[in-house]
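Students often ask why we bother encoding 3D structure as a string. The short answer is that it lets us treat folding as translation between two languages. Here is a chain of 258 residues written in the first language.
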Amino acid sequence: MQLDTREIVPRLRALESLAIIPRVASTNLIARRVVNECIENELSLPQAMIIAGEQFAGRGRNDRRWSSPAGKGIYATTLLTRSAQELPLVPLAMANTLASYLRDTFAIEARIKWPNDILVDHKKIAGILIEARLQENRAYLLIGTGINVEPVNDEHRPNATAIRELTTRNFDGIENATLAFIEHIDARLARPLDHDEVLAEWRSLSIHQPGDRIQCVLGDRTITGTWNGIDEHGRALLQSAGETIAISAGDLVLAPSS
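And here it is in the second language, the structure alphabet:
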């Protein structure tokens, strides 16, 4: 990848630092070291982004393998701090950001599966992995993102799709897609994190419809019910056995029709 960070960074409004590395185990691993150093040495964490041309040990949610071959996707980790009170909004806000990036840049009808998987026609095109360390009232955040740009034959991701397969616009390849991604993230970070706006945008982009049959996998148990939206804290609301269950974390899948 030939992007020149010296030309890009001066144009950015919110991101203070940008690193583009040809090949790493995982951008989140590098970001974790940066966060640990800042906390241990009582340093402020810059708003920064680390991008890899290739990852050989990329991971998604629940430690699932995320294939990250060179030239096939955007593999990045964004570092930032937020107040602990804002933490529940971050997964929703980042999902909004990725979905709007795909919509605005490539005219792709991206939708969000709770809380932050990005799908097109029920096929996954992007994912987010968020790690947080709380220090007093501040949350140090590592926001890992993976976006499929070119198709990849991967037995671990049989239900995946990519920008190349979906966009109807002129597509100039991985470098321009990455530059547009950096600029889109930067523009979003420059905006205040407004609670009502984040929830309203997420609801407008959600793949879930009221009454959809949903299964939620919570560790070794599964809850089946119907989708009832999200609450003011971003928790999924599932109607099951006559009660409404608020879910903070779990894997949602569409339940088979009865």
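Translate back mentally: The domain at 213-254 is CATH 2.30.30.100 (SH3 type barrels.). Keep this in mind for the problem set.
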